[in-house]
C-alpha cells in the first residue's frame, strides 16, 4: 500500500522552534522531510533570531521545498514564544487536524510519523511520544506524568510513600509494549495536538519564555477536560543539554530564574490549596542545589529568590534583559 493510499489521522503539520543550534536543526528538519507529504503536510520552523547561520540555511532550504515554512522572529522569544507563534501560524495557514511540536534538538524516529498515523487516537485529544536520549536511555526531562493532586493512588505513592518524582512520572515499564496510558502533563518534544486540543487550551503563554511552559499548557488542557495519551510506540530522540554533566548544574545561570519561577506557577496550578504546605518540601531542595553551583553560588541564590517571588506573584513581565543582568551581577 502506498503512502497516498494509506489511512491517516488527517492533515499533520510539524512545528519546530530553534535558536542557535543549526547542526541540530539540520538533522531535525531533514528527518521530518523524509516523511511524505501525505503523512506530514508542512513543517513550520520558528527561528528565534538565531545568529549562527540558521537564517541563511533556512532560506536556502525553503527555495527547494514548498513544505518548509519559516518564521523569523525579530528577537529571541524563548521556547514559549516560539511555540505560541508556531502553533498560531500552523493553525491559521494550514488548518491542520493535528500539529506535532518539538525543539530543534528533538526529532522523530524514522518511523514515528508513520506510526502516529497507524495508531487509533479515538477518545484522545493529544498524544505524547516516548522520548529517548541519543544513547537509548529514557529522557527523564520528557517523562509524562499524572497530577498527584488529582489521583489519590498517585498522591499516596508520591508524598506519603516517598516516591518523589518517580511517584507521579511514568515508569520504564510504561515505555514497553503498546498500551496507551492517560497522562495529565507532558513536554513539547513529540507532542501531537489535535485541532480540538488547541481549541480547548488555546496557545502557550509567550511570557513564560522557557521552562515549564509545556507543563502549564498541557495541565491546562487536562483541566479543560482534554485527554492526553502516552503512546510508547511513537519514539522521539532528544539531544538535550540543559544541565551540565556536573550533577544538576545549570549550564547557563540565567535559566535558574525561569526554571524556578515557572515551576512555582505550575505547582500552584497543580496543587490548588495544597500548594502552600508543598512549599515546605520543595523550597529546601531548591536551596540545597546551590552546592552544585560552585563559583556562582551567590548568583544562583539571587536568581532563585527572584524567581520564587515572581512565581508566587505570577509575575511574567520581567524583561529577559533584566534576568540576564541579574545573572551577571557579582555581589
From TrEMBL:
It holds the Pfam family Glycos_transf_2. Its EC number is 2.4.1.54. Residues 15-147 form the Glycosyltransferase 2-like domain. Signal peptide: none annotated. The chain crosses the membrane at residues 265-288. InterPro entries: Glyco_trans_2-like (IPR001173), Nucleotide-diphossugar_trans (IPR029044). Keywords: Glycosyltransferase, Membrane, Transferase, Transmembrane, Transmembrane helix. Gene3D superfamilies: Spore Coat Polysaccharide Biosynthesis Protein SpsA, Chain A (3.90.550.10). It is an enzyme of class 2 (transferase). GO terms for molecular function: undecaprenyl-phosphate mannosyltransferase activity. PANTHER family: GALACTOFURANOSYLTRANSFERASE GLFT2 (PTHR43179:SF12), RHAMNOSYLTRANSFERASE WBBL (PTHR43179). Belongs to the glycosyltransferase 2 family. This is Undecaprenyl-phosphate mannosyltransferase. It comes from Roseovarius litorisediminis.
